Amino acid sequence: MQFGIFTVGDVTPDPTTGRTPTERERIKAMVAIALKAEEVGLDVFATGEHHNPPFVPSSPTTMLGYIAARTERLILSTSTTLITTNDPVKIAEDFAMLQHLADGRVDVMMGRGNTGPVYPWFGKDIREGINLAIENYALVHRLWREDVVNWKGKFRTPLQGFTSTPRPLDGVAPFVWHGSIRSPEIAEQAAYYGDGFFHNNIFWPADHTKQMIELYRNRYAHYGHGTPEQAIVGLGGQVFMRKNSQDAVREFRPYFDVAPVYGHGPTLEEFTEQTPLTVGSPQQVIEKTLAFREYAGDYQRQLFLMDHAGLPLKTVLEQLDLLGEEVVPVLRKEFAKNRPAGVPDAPNHASLLAKAADGAAKAQRKEGADA
Predict the structure, then answer these.
(1) Is the pLDDT of residue 138 over 80?
(2) Which PANTHER family does its entry note (predicted)?
(3) How many other CB atoms are found less than 10 A from the CB of residue 129?
(4) Which of 13, 46, 140, 220 could share a disulfide with 20, CB 3.0–4.6 Å?
(5) Which neighbouring-strand residues pair with 76?
(6) Res 147: pLDDT
């Protein structure tokens, strides 16, 4: 099972000091957080994609390429790549390039995003959001797997004899997660291709998350990719920790109360009761995260949001120390207990390459038997 962090890259005033970091400071902080994630033994760093204030990560592959050069083991991902408003040809080329630079330590999470004005900024109609996601990803999927593509669709100019460059590393496309909070069509899309489904459940109660994941698992099996238990699932989470739970609540409350994403709504206590947000001790984080398996089943990737709401970099790095030293080692051990043998590990470049080689060998044997 993979554990990591994701960032939305918000530039938010620190409510305890009133100071707002500059864009440069926030970008540099995100890099520092990624480097810290590798240092403390996490598996994944993922960044969102936004094109509007107060967010800064408008070019995820640029940031991930820079982080790739400064890390050795960390898997580099997006927590949203806007499949609706980005050109699918550019997506295919950018992430193949990143694959080569990072020696395969790359995957990608496709999503529609949650910022309505982005659509017209890029010449798209938000009312076509689902159709854009379906058509654009169908093209990306082909561009990574076919050396020469002839294609015609509704939302971009046709392609004739087109080759996307560079080709994916070792002929193996990056693993794709389809991220969605509320759209069953996206769960269906992930199941159709046999890709991963990431439910960023940070604002949602357990029953909704369970419903979406069960839909994806059942449709994954329907399309012949394996049993429902073999489907590839990821979850989000939000945590803030201190050794003493009362200290965690006292320190985090002012950030929660004014945060753009959930401030001025439910109380901190209500939000932690109704969603995956955990504010407390490392042991409380462990207990609540382990409970995710009760409604999501055995899953493959757990990402935590930790650097939002104006939290200063020093505090976030302290959080990562706690996560890496006290939380994740226990989660690895406990999630491994009673995990059925048929449940796959999270895919990575090495496992995808081995799977492709095995498929090619089976095809050769079949050809020999049919000859």
Answers:
(1) yes
(2) BLR5498 PROTEIN, LUCIFERASE-LIKE MONOOXYGENASE
(3) 19
(4) 13
(5) 45, 106
(6) 97
Radius of gyration, CA atoms only, the chain: 21
Rounded to whole angstroms, the maximal C-alpha distance in the chain is 75
Average pLDDT over residues 171-184: 92
- 272-327 residue pLDDT tens: 988 889 999 999 999 999 999 999 999 999 999 999 899 999 999 999 999 999 99
Is the pTM higher than 0.85? The answer reads yes
For Cα atoms 357, 358, 364, give the angle at the middle one, nearest 5 degrees: 90
Quickly count: other Cβ atoms within 10 Å of residue 210's Cβ: 17
Angle formed by the axes of helices 328-336 and 282-290, to 10°? 30
Query: What confidence tier does 367 reach under pLDDT thresholds 50, 70, 90?
Result: confident
Burial of 84 (0-12, 13-18, 19+ CB in 10 A): buried
Please state, as a whole number, how many other Cβ atoms lie within 10 Å of the Cβ of residue 357: 13
Distance CA 216, CA 235 (A): 13
Q: What is the chain's percent helix, strand, coil content, to nearest 5? A: 50, 15, 35
d(CA 181, CA 198): 8
Q: Hey, what are 362's tokens?
A: 């089976």
Return the pLDDT at 371: 66
Distance CA 47, CA 74 (A): 13
Residue 47, SS3? Answer: strand
Query: Which residues pair with residue 75 across a beta bridge?
Result: 44
The rounded distance, in Å, linking the Cα atoms of 326 and 304 is 15
Angstrom distance (rounded) from CA 371 to CA 76: 44
What lies within 8 Å, CB to CB, of 288 at 6+ separation is 276, 278
Spatial distance between the Cα atoms of 92 and 141, rounded to a whole number of angstroms:
8
